[in-house]
Write a structure and sequence with these properties.
Length: about 200
């Protein structure tokens, strides 16, 4: 699976992370605002609302899964392209990646439960304490995501330059990966070149 992400074309990653969700949103919003409803449906409630939310959650999950898979593939899979003495320890990266991924799953799970009405928000956020704990975990997860960005961008630049790099050397890659919808067009061809380079 790692090789599939490393060898994927930039347009394939863009399509999975931004293209399909955008197309789905356009179609669903057009259906919602068109006013068309199947016969017998109440006029005040659009029958497209529930499928819209469910589809949005599913596509958001796919987007996050592709991004996480790409991060993992770069952080772990490109280590073999680094010189032996420059290979990075992946322990912290794996922990940060796990925290970031679990936070995304938790967020999607809570959002889905609230949207489909299994539990109201007041039942999930039972107290200020649980809200603060979740908030602190969310902030910690954000810091872990920043570390993953740092690790992945440093791995790419080290593999390209085949030497020790400082943050100044890979700050461009850091921000390109952060703004993935733009950066994928620039970074992924370079990753492809690294993988194909024997």
């Amino acid at each position: 699976m790692i090789q599939k992400f490393l060898r994927a074309k930039h347009w394939q990653l863009f399509l999975l992370t931004y293209g399909l969700p955008l197309l789905f949103q356009i179609i669903m919003l057009a259906l919602i605002f068109s006013g068309w409803q199947p016969a017998g449906e109440p006029r005040h409630l659009s029958p497209w609302i529930a499928p819209h939310f469910t589809g949005t959650i599913a596509l958001s999950f796919i987007t996050v899964a592709v991004l996480c898979g790409w991060f993992w593939s770069i952080g772990v899979g490109l280590q073999g392209k680094l010189p032996e003495d420059l290979r990075m320890r992946t322990g912290k990266f794996k922990i940060a990646f796990l925290v970031m991924t679990l936070c995304a799953l938790l967020f999607f799970g809570i959002f889905y439960i609230v949207v489909i009405g299994i539990l109201p928000v007041s039942r999930i956020l039972i107290s200020t304490t649980s809200f603060l704990i979740f908030g602190m975990y969310y902030i910690f997860s954000g810091l872990c995501a920043l570390y993953c960005l740092y690790f992945v961008s440093k791995t790419i630049k080290t593999a390209e330059l085949q030497r020790e790099v400082s943050f100044g050397d890979f700050i461009g890659e850091f921000f390109l990966i952060w703004f993935f919808f733009i950066g994928v067009w620039i970074v992924q061809p370079r990753v492809n070149a690294l993988v194909e380079d024997v």
